[in-house]
Amino acid sequence: MIDPPSASIWAAGGVLFRRGEEDPEFLVVHRERYDDWSLPKGKVERKESFYDAAMRELDEETGYTFRRPRFIGTTGYETPRGNAKVVRWWLVESTGGSFVPNGEVDQAVWMSGDRVVEMLSYPGDRQVIRRAAGMVAAKRSGVIYLVRHALAGVKADWRKQDWLRPLDRDGVRQAKRLHHRLETVPLTRILSSHYRRCVDTVRPLAIAEGIEVEKLKELGAKADADGVMALFGTTLSGESAVVCSHGEIIGDVIGKLAADGVPLRGPREWRKGSMWVLQTRKGTVRRGRYVEPI
Fold it and tell me: Going from the N-terminus, what domains does the chain have, and what CATH number goes with each?
């Protein structure tokens, strides 16, 4: 992982959970200054790491002790004032303590997952809590956002090596829209075919969130679905990752999943700039849904 742009606001936060009598419960906090319900978080201080900032904010805003920090992912979005903000999140389990009102937070409430989603004021926090709830339910649960590269002109009109073919103007716009579509989704990794059009599709998202693009020939145009599925089961097990590849590869992957009886929602399509959201557990895809390009 690399640093986000220095011009953006750096923040870190955490999701605190405890074992309830029936379902896990999560802590939400109320900030009197903003009159909102959110997850504990705050700005990264000078010479402080994201991780240290998250642990400090959890301690200062909740008063609870905790253990076993697990990285949830990075989100990056624009604040109401138009400033770029990057937040990195960790999941921790409560071991005791009690809430004491402080300068930032005047209330803290434990709630089950479904109620927390309804209570939170911001869509981004809801995405984080959904991912955290999945991690609590199963340690190796994951999400793969399988993206087909954006529009890249006409192959027959390109005279150089195909792997060098760039996005066209519409493709550049699609890449920016992909960034905005995924900006509130907590991500841990971004993988891409080494072809330029794939790398450029995920580059705006990667730069904004400070996540290095991992370029793999296993995702290239000459790869095969078995190799991609193997990545799901090994490298990407338990991750929340964007994976960008080519239409023929994605088509084969979706075909194999359908043949295996995996529930798939939406048309069997993989248009340029579209993605399949694949829910995994222990590296095995359990279900998926198609998301149209925008």
Answer: 9-137 (3.90.79.10), 141-291 (3.40.50.1240)
